[in-house]
Design a protein that fits this description.
- With about 450 residues, the protein is α/β, with parallel strands linked by helices.
- It has 2 domains: about 180 residues, NAD(P)-binding Rossmann-like Domain (Rossmann fold); about 180 residues, 2-Layer Sandwich (Dihydrodipicolinate Reductase, domain 2).
- The chain is about 30% helix and about 20% strand.
- The chain is built from 13 helices and 15 strands.
- The protein has a 9-stranded mixed beta sheet with strand order 13-12-11-7-10-9-8-14-15. A 6-stranded parallel beta sheet has the order 3-2-1-4-5-6, with helices on both faces.
- A hairpin with a 2-residue loop joins strand 11 and strand 12.
- Helix 6 packs parallel to helix 7.
- The chain is globular and about 65 Å long.
- The protein starts with a helix and ends in an 11-residue tail after the last helix.
Length: about 450
Amino acid sequence: MKRRNFLKTSAASALAAPTIVPSSVLGANAPSNRITLGLIGCGGQGTGNLRNLMNKNGTQAIAVCDPDKNNMNRAKDHVNKQYAKQTESGEYKGCETFTDYRDLCAMKELDAVIVGTPDHWHALACLESLRNKKDVYCEKPITHLFAEGQAVYKEAAKQKAIFQVGSQQRSSSRMRVAAEAVMNGVLGKIKEVKVGLPTGGGTDEEGKVAQPIPDHLDYDLWCGPSRLLPFHPKRLHWNWRWCLDYGGGQLMDWIGHHNDIAHWGLEMDKSGPIKVEAKGFRYHGKGMYDQPLDYTVVSEYAGGYTVTLSNKHKMAGGRNMGTEWHGENGWIYVDRGRIDASDNLKQFIRESSDRGPKKAYHSKGGHHQNFIDGVRTRKECICSAETGHRSATPGHIGYVSDKLGRAIKWDPKKEQVIGDPEAEKLLKTVNYRGDWKLG
């Protein structure tokens, strides 16, 4: 059931819950009218998102959920400490805790859910939240599997929900300026785009012998729809991403950042490539971490250019991380903390410059504030569910290409493989463990 062996999956069952008053009608100040927040997945990133969101005006965290009680209780204690004065006055009743995410999603008084779980739980948690009429902030990549991503963005549209993918680079001024310059054609005809991602890591530890499961962890629930592998603490927090049953390695961990920016500039937020080919995937060959150490995914687009995702790039200033667009007029590069361009184009990467009539979505106040603003105004967030899914799609197809050893032709409008039934089935089959289901 490993991703490259069969790209597992099959999805999330949802429990119907009473309809709540939508956040769009809530006021921003009265305690009874605050946007109420719940967190599913209380690890470092999930708790970090909760802290950011609960510090915004007019919000209040009311519940947290995690199958690891240690993580759950740390998050609960942080929330209760934040609202200590309100607790003393009787205004706040304390943070509720849950082991099962479905119980949190069923809360009538909850407006928005933060999904900070490992990747293999993203789809189930998002779908349960959406079907319970909640708005959602979900970490990238939006889902572990391609079919999950389709299900989530379609459900978000059906529910008219506000959805923010945690691709926070979109809310960076440097990223916006670079993308805006590209979409206004200052590069002329695009020739190629380099997307630099990190190199994977491996371990010789095989993890075949189960270690004692700690009392604070419901390991069966933590594995959820994915394989119940022998418990090993190095498969758990943070390190789950190197195990293809739970994450997608460095390729999928970072594709939602740098390829997201590449797509933004190319105006591919609701589209994608026409052909994808994996090249040079190298695996450690032993040990419990089965992500590729090295990888290159070359995607062709209808505009006549390629976008290459790789850990082997050398870009501006010798860097191997970031996004670099090349056109007939020069190049533009952007990464966290750095933006650069060929000498003739440097004028266009200044914030104050006029890059043209096309204006990139400006997320004022940051990525988390953009989500809160969206909940209040019902305006689509800067990184919607479909946008996040489209940014990750070349990676999903890349794993299929690597498995089959051939290039995959793709119809981005229909989101279908062309002329290769085996690849289509491999990409879209969802084989969940036990009774877990996507729909």
